[in-house]
Here is the input.
Amino acid sequence: MAQEFLRFYERFISPSPDHIAIVGRNYEYLVVSCAYLKAHGKKREEIVGRKVHELLGEPIFRNFVKDYLDRCFAGEVINYREWFTFRAAGRRFMNVTYHPYLDYDGTVAGAVVLARDITDYRMAEERLRESEEKYRHLFENLNDAAFLADIETGIIVDTNRQGEALTGWTRKELLGMHQSRLHPPGKTEEYRRKFAVHSVKGRAADYDGEIIRKDGSIVNVHISAAPLSFDEGGRILGIFRDITDRVEYEKALVDSKNRTESLIRSMHDGFSMFDGERRFVDGNPAFFRMVGYSKDELAGRKAPMPYWPEEELPRIEAAFSEMKDGKDGDYEFVFRKKDGSLFPVIISPFVIRGPGGDILNYCATVKDITLRKGLEAEFIRTQKLESLGRLAGGIAHDFNNLLTGITGNVSLAMFYGPDDKVSGRLREAEKACNEAKRLVRQFLTFSKGGAPVKSTLLLENAIADWCSFVTAGSRSKCEFSIAQGLLPIDADEGMLSQAIQNIVVNAEEAMPSGGLIRVVAFNTSEAKERHLGSPHVCIRVEDSGAGIREADLEKVFDPYYTTKHGGSGLGLAAAHSIIRNHGGFMEAESAPGRGSAFSVYLPASAGTGADAGPCTAPQRSGRVLVMDDDEMIREALGEILKSMGCEVESARDGAEAVAVFEGARSEGRGFDLVIMDLTVPAGMGGREAARRVLEIDPSAKVIVSSGYSDDPVMSDYAEFGFSGVITKPYKAREMMALVGRFLGSGTR
Here is the structure.
């Protein structure tokens, strides 16, 4: 399926009010409309490229949607109507059609799913069925005459009291009478044609006509006629309004003036008119609402107008002069409302000239473009944030390289230095490096986000460090209750710490005067009203704040939703996203006046946790090739590997690493392990270099390392051919443990 056509199709369907999606044969969303995104409360990147079951859920997909898609892939067009419950739009009644999507060669490449919201239509049908008595009451008490006639025979089958009053005939006389007898001789065929023209187009007929009363007098009426369907057959409902007074009034007006005024007054945009001397003549209701002045306040007033700011007067006067000279074009000005507020407008002017060419009127449509300007400003802000994000990612990457060199050397110094005093200082330095690493991870999360790069993690000591860091210097205090034997988890430490700290920040903000934040952690296989099925670790954060209303509780994880003045509404949303990306979930409990509790459930790991003990070098033998563009990292990593008993060679970029690897292999002294930096500015990076190394030796073991933890290679390294992954900055013992998995002990 051509991507270019899909992009064209996406632009074509985006403004449609219908829910439209193109689904590939692998059940993957290829294109969705804006209405589809809005109804599901999702961003485009959360749907496009994902499977249908990921959005709708496995049960709905397997039991309902998959069959329709498979039939459509087989060439069948499917249509049905059903109730659906959407995340954002709620419960809606939809008319759904599946069309096969044909590729250039005529094969079915996917399905175009079009769903139209017909809830209002369905509800109208239900109300119509349920309200026969109300209809009868309304029918009888209409201010206008109403007649119901059989659509096949034209016989009147019902009327109301106003029908008797208008025609002079009694109800008994009217029932069974042919509808043509209501019209003067010679008019019946004309009215029949008018009704036919409207009914063919599927809409009610509205036209002015005449009826003849029982006494022979003629009455001017406005007729609204529409076909109706009843169980007993088709009917025509005609509503006749006596317009005698209106007709007499309209005869006194010029028809063209009436049509023009009706058009102008129905406009959503403003319209204003000046005479040839630039005195204000009139405007439409939209214009007067726009500027806040009434017609009486402006009529007859000569320019300048009170809604023209002084700074705009020269440009407006120039526009009048250009109009006088016959120049066409739009103008963008700023107007001032009566209340003093300013708003941007686009003026589209024209002039009306008399027979001699003199200007009779200056006219202009006035469009308020406040919304458009706001969207433009938002677009500029978004571009600035994207630029800032790219800058943040670059700075964080470089800083991570520096931290890797520092952390590696500190770890080595701790390994080499037996002096307790020196070791104590080095441990403090390592602790500062760990905090810097956490901050940089948050920096990278701000810049681009990304999937977690997991490792086995013990939470017993980490939780207290994370939470205490947030409350340091505040009025609130954390109280911890960490269960003994807390199971390890597989997590991205930087991301998880950010999530827990966001929850603690939320608890702290819920208590402006300070208070106690209780943090509990324990192992469990049960959550609120659900069985987890496997061991989990629960981290629960409780505050004693004002609490959350039940109506608001279900929205607390929605982006930009907040009840706090000045809050962004992103903290809990970000935490929820991070926990979900770790295979866990969150629960919220609260009640007004009773505080709140947020529980995080994370699957326990089968591992034993990260080694937090002293740095000892496991003895391993083997040849290792190190590729990194940073000299300090190459040297520090080389020392770490040599301390393990490895023979080390290094390269500055991917091209050099491939050449060294190939040369060593041809000489019969190949490498047992390759460690590659993922990103090399102005050079070949680890992804391409690893691909070439594996082409040379498919059994090669390659570890990828980077300070860009958001890169997809880091979270799914095996898909790119790597055997292992480590995120910068790393400690010596972390690298030693990873290398030890791939190298054997003893001599070569």
User: Anything to note?
Assistant: The chain is about 40% helix and 25% strand. Residues 438 and 494 are 5 Å apart (CA to CA). Residues 256-368 form a domain with the Beta-Lactamase fold (CATH 3.30.450.20). The longest strand covers residues 530-543.
